[in-house]
Specification:
This protein is an all-alpha fold and about 300 residues long. The protein is built from 15 helices and no strands.
């Protein structure tokens, strides 16, 4: 897909998202979207075959936008793991506040088909999210927290859902997003400390938790977010390679790769080119293969794929 086509599709998605947020999907016609985008209705259908396809693309666009924004914080090496998590909470809540009117209109619209597309995408990726969060908590509070990580995840998930629900109250309470994310970290600190101090029996026993992560997630074909893989690649390269042109070129390739991965429509030539630049570095071969398998999924359904 050319950059010009990608830019045009992104322009359509942003315009449609704005209209859907203002009027709702059922009250917005493809003709209106085409007019806002400065194109004919026929040209619009060249990019999206139906309104349903456009609607699904917007849900995926929102999911990827939030996910990529959260994972980009993971690359902020000047932040501690706890500071990263606080900023990631803030990023998630900020995006949900931005999308509030869009989601409200979808709920008001009622029963049109993919109303559950967004939640479907979230739950489809739940193992990956839980695994990432589990690792993050154990990094912050130490491996001794391992028996209690799922308990903490359940607590934080419930609070995040409650915070998001507050945003949908008709007379929205003027809560500060940063204060909300700081409160989550504050409560996490105190609950984690209490768990470690009192050694109480976790809600989910360790043997069941271990079985779940080691068996069920494999059956679900869990894949890491590509930015987590690129982060690990950068760490390994800095540890294994001496300073020089090879390290500089490899890190530059990873930076370009990351920049392209967070685009709504990443370009295959750029992704494959940057991965090819890492071919002669055995230290990251396994991670490169893992990343390649994920990159392949980006282009399923495209007539020009040949990975």
């Amino acid at each position: 897909m050319s950059q010009k086509t990608t830019d045009k599709k992104n322009h359509i998605l942003k315009a449609a998202l704005q209209l859907f947020s203002t009027k709702g999907i059922s009250s917005t016609s493809m003709q209106e979207i085409a007019e806002v985008c400065g194109m004919s209705k026929g040209s619009l259908y060249l990019h999206f075959k139906s309104k349903e396809e456009l609607e699904k693309s917007i849900y995926l666009y929102c999911i990827h936008m939030i996910s990529n924004s959260i994972m980009q914080v993971e690359l902020e090496t000047q932040l501690s793991p706890k500071e990263q998590l606080q900023q990631q909470f803030e990023t998630l809540l900020s995006h949900m506040l931005e999308l509030r009117e869009f989601v409200k209109h979808q709920l008001m619209d009622g029963a049109n088909p993919p109303k559950n597309e967004m939640s479907g995408c979230i739950f489809e990726d739940q193992f990956t999210t839980i695994d990432w969060f589990k690792t993050k908590l154990e990094t912050i509070y130490g491996p001794e927290l391992k028996p209690y990580t799922l308990d903490l995840i359940l607590m934080v998930s419930g609070m995040l859902i409650s915070y998001i629900r507050i945003m949908f109250i008709p007379e929205y309470l003027p809560l500060n997003i940063r204060n909300m994310s700081n409160q989550l970290i504050f409560l996490l600190d105190h609950v984690a400390d209490s768990m470690l101090t009192n050694h109480y029996e976790p809600l989910i026993p360790s043997d069941i938790l271990s079985h779940w992560f080691n068996t069920d997630r494999k059956q679900a074909s869990i894949q890491r977010h590509p930015l987590l893989i690129s982060k690990e690649m950068r760490f390994v390269l800095k540890e294994k390679l001496c300073e020089g042109d090879q390290l500089t070129d490899a890190l530059e390739s990873i930076h370009i790769l990351e920049t392209e991965l967070v685009n709504n429509q990443p370009r295959r030539a750029i992704l494959m080119g940057m991965l090819a630049n890492l071919e002669q570095i055995p230290e990251v071969e396994d991670m490169k293969k893992e990343l390649l398998e994920i990159v392949k999924l980006y282009f399923i359904g495209q007539s020009d794929r040949s990975l």
